[in-house]
Amino acid sequence: MKERLEGLRVEALERLKEVSDPNALSELKVHYLGKKGQLTEILRGMGALSAEERPVIGQVANDVRGAIEAVIAEKQEAFDREETARRLRSETIDVTLPGKKRAEGLIHPLTKVTQEIEDVFLGMGYEIAEGPEVETDFFNFEALNLPKNHPARDMQDSFYLTDEILLRTHTSPVQIRAMRAANGRTPLKIICPGKVYRRDDDDATHSFMFHQIEGLVVGPNIRMSDLKGTLLQFVQAMYGKNTQIRLRPSFFPFTEPSAEVDVTCAQCGGSGCRMCKHTGWIEILGCGMVHPKVLEYGGYDPKEVTGFAFGMGVERIALLKYDIDDIRHFYNNDLRFLGQFARM
């Protein structure tokens, strides 16, 4: 057995000298020193030795194992040094090179326009009010003079979650909530920005989700002329001091009388062009005097106070302000498109 152990030592050391990569080294380690390796195979015959021979053979086996392990460790250390040197060569960093500039985030054009609109109305003494996007049928329709089965509900194809819960179709429910929270206080002057949802097919001018800003003023002796003056001040702040407005009679269940508001085309100044379809005017929002029933739902006495309301789509305002022809550009997350607004 002693001769077999010595022969194993010579064989293993010779083969280890020729090893040129870590994988081959690992294989030889298993071959000679593993649980099913050559050394273990020889030592299985220890049981047949006499009591005097076992210590001698055991010492020889330990010497053989030690010699093989020492060469393996030396080889492994050499391979580790080579790998470290290789990585240092391949991963060298030139600290004299200029750093990489990180891209800075930009304010989205819809956020920018929303902030501009808010600034205009905050400057006129309005407060910002917010409400839930998941709304009850009562606040979204009934309290706005749209009882169940009212034909005007068809104007807003809705996302219902249950029979009484839906995604709000406009920000007008915030007006009811704000009036009730005011508990009869006047004057009440608020704007309500936020997301709204309707079952529209996406195209160049429509989206199932978009942004609205609605305004509400309630107080004694509020007149239609106050509404017109407010909207004129707003559009001139957004589109320039030479911009004019006109009000066309319309219908909304929550206002009476109601009107659509047009502005002089920013592209042609009112002379007529492709953008305004050669009319000189572009529609931007709807408005009117708050319906007496809506005031009652909000906790006000329509015999004591009056009010006006208006609502606009932020996307609509942005399309006109920046002369954009497709609403979908706002949602595609194309940095080439969004980057243009960094300078505006």
Automatic annotation (TrEMBL):
The keyword Disulfide bond does not apply. Its EC number is 6.1.1.20. Residues 111-320 form the Aminoacyl-transfer RNA synthetases class-II family profile domain. Keywords: Aminoacyl-tRNA synthetase, ATP-binding, Cytoplasm, Ligase, Magnesium, Metal-binding, Nucleotide-binding, Protein biosynthesis. It is found in: Cytoplasm. Its cofactor is Mg(2+). Its main location: cytoplasm. It is an enzyme of class 6 (ligase). SUPFAM superfamilies: Class II aaRS and biotin synthetases (SSF55681), tRNA-binding arm (SSF46589). Mg(2+) binds at residue 256. Binds 2 magnesium ions per tetramer. One of its GO terms (molecular function) is ATP binding. It catalyses: tRNA(Phe) + L-phenylalanine + ATP = L-phenylalanyl-tRNA(Phe) + AMP + diphosphate + H(+). GO terms for cellular component: cytoplasm. Transmembrane segments: none annotated. The keyword Nucleotide-binding applies. One of its GO terms (biological process) is phenylalanyl-tRNA aminoacylation. Tetramer of two alpha and two beta subunits. Belongs to the class-II aminoacyl-tRNA synthetase family. Phe-tRNA synthetase alpha subunit type 1 subfamily. This is Phenylalanine--tRNA ligase alpha subunit. It comes from Cohnella fermenti. The gene is pheS.
